[in-house]
Amino acid sequence: MSNPDILQAALTRLDDAARHVQIDSDVLEKLKYPRETMKVRLLIRMDDGSRKSFLAWRCRYDDTRGPTKGGIRFHPESTAEEVETLAFWMTVKCAVTNLPYGGGKGAVRVDPKSLSKAELERLSRAYVQAFASIIGPDRDIPAPDVYTNAMIMGWMSDEYSTIRGEPHPGVITGKPIALGGSLGRDDATARGGFYLVGHLTERLGLPTEGLRVVVQGFGNAGQHAARLFRSIGAKIIGVSDSRGAVYASGGLDLDALLAAKNQGRSVLDAEHGGKAISADELIGLETDVLVPSAMEDMIHEGNANTVKARVVLELANGPITPAADEILAKKGVIVLPDILANAGGVTVSYFEWVQNRQGYYWTLDEVHTRLKTIIEREGDVVWNIARDKDVTLRTAAYIHALNRLATAIEAHGTQQFFTS
Ligand SMILES: NC(=O)C1=CN([C@@H]2O[C@H](COP(=O)(O)OP(=O)(O)OC[C@H]3O[C@@H](n4cnc5c(N)ncnc54)[C@H](O)[C@@H]3O)[C@@H](O)[C@H]2O)C=CC1
Ligand SMILES: O=C(O)CCC(=O)C(=O)O
């Protein structure tokens, strides 16, 4: 079960940033609480004829800058607090990248690995039936997150269009290409982080050849990150999934690892060419880049001191606790923060939504070029704020987002009041 104080911990990052800029207290008050969180129980017919009930949530944290946007997670330990925190991070992330969105997030408390494909489809459709009044192409636009994927987004988009009686591809992003998905959404989360590291390589003090990379979590974000870094000659020396971790100082056999995951097996079961190590040993590996790509709070007070990476590229949301952040900063480890480092996913989701609305689809090259432009532009702004104010890149990214959020909140007018 995730930390019940996870939202309070996340909000401390906003307070840190607020100390460095002149921000009206009204702005902070507005950003402290989610605008609305809807909780339902989904009752699903199982294949054996029985019925089973699952808790589900959708949170629209803040819509000042546009419709709320964020993924849906299927995880056995999801909680309302986790969903709200993830929705808060989406709010900040969309501001950092200047996407015309607020932040949202959803979850179902379920172990999707325990469901058949038909059960998973019924659960996905039930989610949309339950939340049809809160989502919509101009209101709240879901996407994939942990243990959800393009197939699930396809079912959800189909269900929404059925309810509305006409196609609404822009209600959900991360869909299959055949249903209006965008080229390049599949690896966009990792690609955004990869572009960021590439753009900042010199400033980060990273080697241009023989880069060593460790990837924690080997799903959508982690697998694509490993593949992209390998494409520039990097060695993937450690990877992990929920079952365990593996390591080879000379580099793991990435194709074998990808093949095993593709067949639904763990990295432990692959012909990886290395040895099994513990989850904590993985975090402590001597490497140039550590890429957390799994869950929140994986690097905490208890293991942060062991981190030997030069750079941590946060593809996961919230993988480092505030206490661990301080330890890493003291050790001189540079953290590329989630709200910038993993923003490639939502950025290409935005491209998908734009393409759905205009009914005209871009080439993969166009998607990549536009993504790179945004990540490099915002990466430079964040880097310069950190340098000028002598703060971490995370605080700089929050300062950048807070400025944009404050401008938008003020532009709405001072007499506006909100109902939840
Ligand atoms: N999919 C997307 O577009 C985006 C995902 N993210 C974030 O990236 C992270 C990963 O998401 P996805 O790759 O989409 O999920 P996924 O479901 O494709 O993969 C998750 C991976 O994490 C592993 N994992 C779970 N618990 C673990 C543990 N305790 N130790 C090590 N590995 C563990 C799983 O085995 C799996 O390999 C999450 O924090 C998510 O919120 C962020 C931005 C966009
Ligand atoms: O693609 C999206 O809209 C949201 C992705 C997401 O959930 C995230 O960035 O954490």
Automatic annotation (TrEMBL):
InterPro entries this protein is in?
Aminoacid_DH-like_N_sf, Glu/Leu/Phe/Val/Trp_DH, Glu/Leu/Phe/Val/Trp_DH_C, Glu/Leu/Phe/Val/Trp_DH_dimer, Glu_DH, NAD(P)-bd_dom_sf, NAD_bind_Glu_DH
- Which keywords has UniProt assigned to this entry? Oxidoreductase
The keyword Oxidoreductase is annotated on this UniProt entry: yes
**Which Gene3D superfamilies does this one have?**
Leucine Dehydrogenase, chain A, domain 1, NAD(P)-binding Rossmann-like Domain
Residue ranges of domain Glutamate/phenylalanine/leucine/valine/L-tryptophan dehydrogenase C-terminal in the record: 182-413
- What CDD domains is this protein classified in? NAD_bind_1_Glu_DH
Family that this chain belongs to: Belongs to the Glu/Leu/Phe/Val dehydrogenases family.
Record's protein name: Glutamate dehydrogenase
This protein's species is Brevundimonas terrae
